[in-house]
Structure formats: C-alpha cells, structure tokens
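Onboarding guide, step 5: your first structure request.
Type a short instruction followed by the sequence, for example:

Predict the 3D structure of this protein.
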Amino acid sequence: MAEVKVDVSKLKNYINGEWVEGDKHTDVINPATGEAVVEVPLSSAKSVDDAVKAAKAAQKEWALVPAPERAEVLYRVGDLMKERKEEIAQLLTLENGKVIEEARGEVQEGIDMAYYMAGEGRRLFGQTTPSELRNKFAMSVRSPLGVVGIITPWNFPIAIATWKSFPAIVSGNAVVWKPATETPIMAHELVKIFESAGLPKGVINVVYGSGSEVGDAMVHHDGIRVISFTGSNDVGRDIAGKCGQQLKKVSLEMGGKNAVIVMDDADLNLAVEGILWSAFGTSGQRCTACSRVIVHEDVKEELEKRLLEEMKSLTIGNGLDSSVKVGPVINKGSLEKINSYIDIAKNEGAKLVAGGSIMNEGEYANGNYFEPTLFTDVKPDMRIALEEVFGPVLSLIPVKSFEEAIEVNNSVTYGLSSSIFTKDVNRVFAAQRDLDTGIVYVNAGTTGAEIHLPFGGTKGTGNGHRDSGVQALDVFTEWKAIYVDYSGKLQRAQIDNN
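The system replies with structure tokens like these:
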C-alpha cells in the first residue's frame, strides 16, 4: 500500500487568503485503521463572520473580472488537479476510506468539472427576445448573487465541492465553504490548488467545524445569499425552513432509496455486475447507491444465486490496497446505524442470506468494516425497503410485472436514481417516462452520473435545484431582465400596445 501523508499535522481555516489558526480541534480518523490522521478546527460563528466579510469585499472586485478571465483560473485548477490526481486520490482514501480506484474517479470528476465550468465562462448565456414595442430592445442576463455558502458531505469530499464552488466562482460569486469534519483534507488540498491557480484572496474561504455551530451560523448570516447543501434529509429540511424564513435561496440534495429493476428478459450477468457496483461500491455510502433490487419473480431465484456467488469475490479492507473492492464505512456511528437495520429487517420478516455483521476481528479490529449484506423476500413496505441505510446492505423485492415494478420503485419518499435492466424497447421508454426519479439508467446500475448533466432528484431527495450541468448555474445566479428603449419617447408597454 502507498504511504501518504498530509503536509501539516493541524489544519487551519482559510480566510481572505490566509491560513487562520482555530481555537479548538478534533482528530480526523482514518476509517480503515482507526488512527488519527490530522487535527481539524472546530470553529465558531466568529470565524464564519470573518469569512463572510472577506468574501463580500472580494466578490465586488471578482464580479468585475470578465467571465472568460474568471474561467482561466478554473482551467488552471483543472490542470493542477490533473497533475496531482494520484496524490489527492490517496489522501482522499486516507480520510474517507473509499477504495483507491473510486477515489481516483472522484478526483477525475473534479477535473472534469473544472474544465466544464471553465467553458461556461465563455457562455453564461442569457437571452435576447423581440420587444412588443417599436425601437425597444429586450434581453435577460445572469448576475452573480454575491456570497455563496456551501456545505458539503464526507462521502464525496472533493467532487461535490467542485460541483458547487466551480459554477459559483465562474459566475462571479465568492464562496464560504464548510466541509464535513470527517473529511477536511480535501478542502485543504483544493484551497492550495486555488492559490496556485491565482484565485484572488477572499473569493474562496474555508471554515471547518460542526453543523450546529458553523453550518447554523452560515444559514443565519445576512451576508450569505444562497446555501447549497448536500447531506441528510433531516438537516436539509431544517436548513430549508430557516432559509425560508429569511427569504434566502437554498439548494438541497438529500439522498435516496434507489432501486435497480430487473425484468424477466434482462441480461442477468450484466444486471449482477451493475447491482454489485451500485450496492457495494463506496460501501453503499453514495446517495445514488442501490439498496433495492426489484426483480421479476420469474428470474428472482437465478438472480439471487448469481449475486450470492459474485459477492464471495468481494475483497474487503483498506482502500489504499488496490486489490480491495469494499472499504470501511466512515465512522463508528455509521457502523452502529447500519447494524441496527439488520435486526429491524429480520424482525419484519426479511430473510438474511449473506453478510449482516460488523467485522471487528483480526485485520479489521481497528477499522469500521461491515460485511456486504443481502436480504431476500423483502416486502415493499418494510423499513429496510423504505429508509436510507447508507451502507453495504441490499434488499431483493420480488414483483409479478413491469407495472408493479414501477409502482414499487415509486413508493418511497426519495426520488434520486433508478435503473432498469430489460431488452424490451417499449418497457425502456415507458420506464423513462414513469420512474419518478431525477436520474434514470437503462441497462446500467444506479451510479455513474456525468458532470455535464443535471444531478438531483424529486420528492424527499431535494427541493428542485440541481448540481452539475448548466443547470447548476441557476443556483448561483439571478436572472436580470433589461430593456433598452431607443425610441426617444416614453413607451408604457401594454398601455401603449393595445
């Protein structure tokens, strides 16, 4: 395994282009080994206020920089991330635990986002439209909001940060960023890259700390115009309520209960491959992870047999070992939550056919490891089929028809990602129409979103905004309508046009 180290023993906040010492600190724990990696500040509301003041001052100047020039910084960020890809990926695995090939993929996602959003610096398109009056010109343009607050999770600590910060920055905003305290190293590394790329002081600011202290201070700060949050449903609802009271713009992405539908005509080998990656990649800790397989009863037995056979080949361990396919979960609290669902599922009548236990002996004694787990004969109304476990736990739900499969998929409160395996083109198009999720895959698993398409979901997954794609610009800009009257006289729109 590779030897990777952080370049400091104690992280600092980054405010107005300076590294600022924190008052209190806590350890960042490697979930694979239980060892402390680095110390991270637990900041106060004062640090948030300092960051917002710096961001407000910087944003006034940054907004005047032509967008193509702002974009040049992102191009350099992409180049620097590309040069340091392997190093960053190893540091990501060190603090997060995901296997190294997934970490490399996540860093690549950030690289792709840098280049994509840099391209928007020469677009940021508005619209021109005919006026209803003579000698009058009408158009709409995008304007930056000002100071943007982003709150990012531990499961994709650099990719999601790039989804949010890059469109905000290219649009002319300044950013105050609260990373997850479990995975702060990616913020430290990304800020260093921004520095090297020439981003002016104050345009990006990082304040480490808890959600209850730093996150809440950001949500309530008058100087922050928008909050972009990815995390749990409970926290997202709370943020939405508080932002609503302040008439503050808020973008939420809050997870899913994603399903793969396997029809009776599916390529089962392909379905098994897609299910395994979607369910057990990242140890099930993706908001797009597959936790339900809705399978036609005619192929249920065969699919279950093949899944059980392939699950035996899943190697579990430290993600820095390139032979490992399933790493640890993030912390002891997650381990206990996942474990609690095993008893819940058993008590409801689900049949456990693989896994179902914490791994805490031998080489796994100090880490946070949970066996890849499979339940069968799960009913759609069981808690294991409705609630987000966020771990390597998969449920097989048998159905009798395509129509029932769609109904079961849509019966949960979330609506992020769904998938169907079938060779029937009619079912494919019906599924695209009827699956009520923001992302739909055909003959693929529930993961694998690309950065140039919108990312987000329906119902309890979010509030209608999207990360990624050109749609992300809508979160970080306001539309401004502009009318230029060159008639030389007062024209009163509809009053003079009837």
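Each response can be followed by summary notes, for example: Residues 258-442 form a domain with the Aldehyde Dehydrogenase; Chain A, domain 2 fold (CATH 3.40.309.10).
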